[in-house]
Amino acid sequence: MLIILIVVVFDISEKIEDFVAKEAPLKAIIVDYYFNFIPYFVNLFSPLFTFIAVIFFTSRMATRTEVVAILSSGVSYSRFLYPYMISATAIAFLSLMLNNFVIPHATKKRIDFENIYLKNKFYNNDKNIHIQLTPNNYIYLERFDVDENMGYRFTVEKFKEGELVYKLTAESIKWDSLKHKWSVSNYHIRDINEMNETIKIGVRIDTVLGFTPQEFGRKDNTVETMDYFKLNNYIEAERLKGASNIEVFEIEKYKRNSVPFATFIFTIIGASIASRKVRGGIGMHIALGFIIGFTFVLFMQISTTFAIGGFVSPLFAVWIPNILFGIVAVFLLKTAQK
Known about the structure:
A hairpin with a 4-residue loop joins strand 5 and strand 6 (181-193). The chain has nine helices and seven strands. It has helices at 2-21, 26-44, 46-63, 66-72, 77-117, 228-241, 246-274, 281-308, 314-335; strands spanning 129-134, 137-141, 143-145, 150-160, 163-176, 181-193, 196-207. Helix 2 (26-44) runs antiparallel to helix 5 (77-117). By secondary structure, the protein is of the alpha+beta class. Strands 1, 2, 3, 4, 5, 6 and 7 form a seven-stranded antiparallel beta sheet that branches. It has two domains: 2-118 and 241-335, no CATH class; 129-215, no CATH class. The radius of gyration is 27 Å and the shape is elongated.
């Protein structure tokens, strides 16, 4: 609760100008934003909170020489860890379910609040956009301006049994929100029927193209509102379109599973460190716990940055902190005072 309070205070100090500038209602700030931000934050850092709890509890036992008494009575160290691992399993399973099925739905209100009062509208910085609308329909744009709902250097191609049967090229297309149609400028249409071909050239035409501007504008944080199945479908759809920055979405997917697993690693590390009675007692153990915990967070940030840059795969980037700290956990477990 203390850590959450500190985080909320820092978050308020960072966003207070936006709240005031955009006249965010106090009720919306508390209910829609922070009531949904706190569960998200707690679940995201649940392995670290578990780690601190394990260190605090075990260190108190070690200070009172209770760990020595337990092990001296003939209880093996693995048996000593049973309650820890049972609790870690319960916490990890709960976190896994929350990550994939509960929190995404609760996060929607927080994201909606952010989109209104904290962040700008949808964006699109992609160049040379390729999208497959259906198995036989493809479109291409050099770029798309989300603010103007306008695309440049546009092409749509239709195939039948692997053969091109229709092709439209245009200098630009613009969405007409009243007619719910596209206004195509300086167009060139080819209709191909086996050996016959019809060509039509014009300055402007209104038509339905089978997609809307929402296909191009996006916010990366929208994936946080998707449950496990929707997120998988979304990633496949974006990959089919040839969208860039798919790594961001894959990182979100893999992180939902890797973070709960870290609970086991931190439980073993915490118990192995704190079960040894040392000078400095609880304070020394907790300080060491904070250092290890925030080192893990730092590794996670660095590895995911490399994944976004395309240097490593998102799956490996998300799991490499668990692998490295898992090795540390095994080493500490083997060298723990037994």
